[in-house]
Each structure stands twice: as C-alpha cells, then as structure tokens.
C-alpha cells in the first residue's frame, strides 16, 4: 500500500510514521539518561567517562547527519529512513548485550549512526509535505509534541525498567518500536527517486567532521585530567580536522554541506542560536538525574517521576499553544520569550540545596519545559524558512546536526565544569553532597550563559527575518564539477 502525499490523508499517515520513527530516537535519549547511574555501577564507569554513554551516541548521530542527508538525496529519503530504523534496532540489541564499557560505547556510536539515517530525513520530508506556513507550523508542533511525549515515556520507562528488570531492557524496548515503524514506513511513505549514487557522496567530509567532533569532545572531557600540552595538542588536532571539513565543503564537487546555505540569514542565524541554546539545555537533564540519584538518594523510578514535569510541560505547550503564539506574535518574538524563560529556569537551578531540594527543583523543571516548548518550534521554523526546496534535505540535516553537536559539546562542557568544581570543593573540605551540588550549580550558571548569548543572537540576527520563506540564492550556488575534488 502506498498513499499519495498530495491528499490530506496521505500527508497525515506520512506524518504519523515520521513521528513514530522520531519517537524511538527521542525515547532512547531520555530512557538512557535515567539509567546512567545504574550503568555506571554495573560497568564501572569513572565519573568523567560516564558522559561518553551519551556523547558516543551524539557524535555518531551529529557527525553522520550531513552524510545521511546526502544519501537521502542520492537514493531516496524513504529508503534511507527505513535503513536507519533497522540499523538503530540492531545497534540497540548490541547495547543491551554490552558486557563492558568499550562494547557499550561502540554500540552507542552505531546506534547514533542509525538514528542519523532516520532523523536526517524527517524535517526535510515534513517541509516538502506541508508547504503552507500554517500547516507546516501545525506539523512541526505535532512533531515537537511527539518528541516530548517520547521524552516523557522514556523517563518513566527508564525508571521502571532499570529498577525492575535491569538496565539492559532500556535498549531492548527500541526493538519493537523500531521494527513497527520500519514496516509502516515501507508501506505508507511516498516513494522518491534519488539522484543516484553516481552523483557522489562526500565520505571524506563525513570522516573529517566525525573525527573532529569526537576528538574535540574527548579534549573537553579529559581537560581537567591531562597535562596542558596534551590538551592543547588534541584540541589543536580537533580544530585542524574541523577546518579540513570546511575546506573540503568549499572545494568538493558534491559537498555534504554546501556553504551557500549559510548565505541565508535565517539559516545561519537560526543554527547559531540553536547551537548555543541546545548546549545549555541538553546537559541539564543529565546533571539533574545525577543530582536526584547521588545527592537526594532517589531510586531510578522516583528519578524518572521527578523529571517527568519537564516533558509533560513541553507536551502541553507544544500541542497547539506554541503554534498559536507564533501565528499571533511571530517566530522571533516567541523565540526570544522562550529563551528568556529558559534563562530564568537556570537561574533557579543555581540555588539548588544539597538536601530536600525537590521543592526548588520542581518550579525550575516547569519553567524550563515551558521555555523549551515555546522556543524550539519557533526556532525550527526560522531555521528552515529560508530553505529552497532543492536544499530542504541539506538544511534539515544541518539543523539536526547542530542539535546533536551542541548536545555533545554542551554535555561535555557542563559535566567537566561540574566535576572540576566538585573536586575543588572536596579538596577545600566540603562534604560529598555539598560538593556535588556546588559543582552542578556552577554548571547551571554556564548553561544559563549559553542561553543568554543565544537570546542576544536571536534578537539581533533573526529579528529581520520574520520567518517568511525565502529561497536560497541559486546564483551563488557552487557550480557542479566533475571528476575528483
């Protein structure tokens, strides 16, 4: 069965399938977050290395998203989406079977690669399916709602599964969801003819950006434990690799990321704002889960329940409220209000106590959820609004890449800051709970700083875009060349 995307029913069915695939990816993120302290004990992770359970996934996801987007153009988005779902399911099974740190981290990287293949297709297909701004806003709102619903399910499921049957099952739960989504996608998504593999995919560019990101995150995480010459050396190597990626994109015949897309103000400004906002937001649940488990002594189930208000708030606000706000006030004003709300949430978190802290934590979780659900749909629409239809897959892949890269970098920075300050407080004679809480407070100050810079960027760079669709200037596109680049 294949349903035409030109009909309302066909678009709705396609939206359901795309959201189901994204549900699995979002579910994986939050379900793992809750189980991290248990995984740490089971596989004997050092505190500084625990972040790699998340970062291996994020780097595999973000580093390979540009290549995934290009593969969608070459062989068809439907085929790549289904392939990504199947790879994600297989890697999830490997994560569940992990018996040591190396096996789990490697499987998480492969899982991220599968997630990249699937997720890189979603926004581009949504933009193509829903061309009218109002319909597109509703579709993106539904997409955000499903993502927050997956986050809520993951938080509860992570606590229940970890506490009752073990942490391995947080990965096995992806198997039935992924297989069902793959079967439905093969049946209801519209078939697309790609350009063909002969058009070329920049595998060298993918290697450069993935290696550069991984080495950069490694440098940040190990910066407090390695001598400065070593840290400067690995950091410089990461910069060289990422600079090589940029040069490659400028000269390649078939770049993963055509640099012309940055000529559009909404694309460049939207992604820069996204980088800062996600760098601040992503690490907070990681740190709060550790705070609940290690400082307040919550078990996995109660940790999941304690984190649930954020996801529920995101679900409620994103289900129609954010779309109405954007239609009434415009995406830039709504984005600015959302980012300001997030900054207020982080300000509350900087006052967390080392005992009986949930009464103060709860308002912060609600405020952060409301701010995120307000800001993200507006930011998504702005970042995608200038994409020419022929570049929708590239811009979608860029947006997703920036999210994952920002998450990995933000998590690495915030966890490193928290661990370093905690060690300083312990050396000064503070108790374990007070020292850990102090480390988290400093990390939340840094996170709030990221969001405030994002807010400043949004109101200065994006204020002139207004979110109105504007094509990428084709006269500035790089000419297509043949032969080796």
Structure characterization notes:
It is built from 16 helices and no strands. It is an all-alpha fold and 485 residues long. The chain is globular, with a radius of gyration of 21 Å. It has a single domain, classed as Up-down Bundle (Growth Hormone, Chain: A), CATH 1.20.1250.20. Helix 9 runs antiparallel to helix 10, helix 9 runs parallel beside helix 15 and helix 15 packs antiparallel against helix 16.
Structure summary:
Keywords: Cell membrane, Membrane, Transmembrane, Transmembrane helix, Transport. The protein is 79% helix and 0% strand. The chain is mainly alpha-helical and 485 residues long.
Question: Topology, pairings included?
Answer:
Blueprint lengths: L7 H36 L3 H4 L1 H24 L1 H20 L4 H29 L3 H32 L4 H4 L1 H15 L14 H20 L5 H24 L13 H31 L4 H30 L1 H19 L8 H28 L6 H36 L4 H30 L24
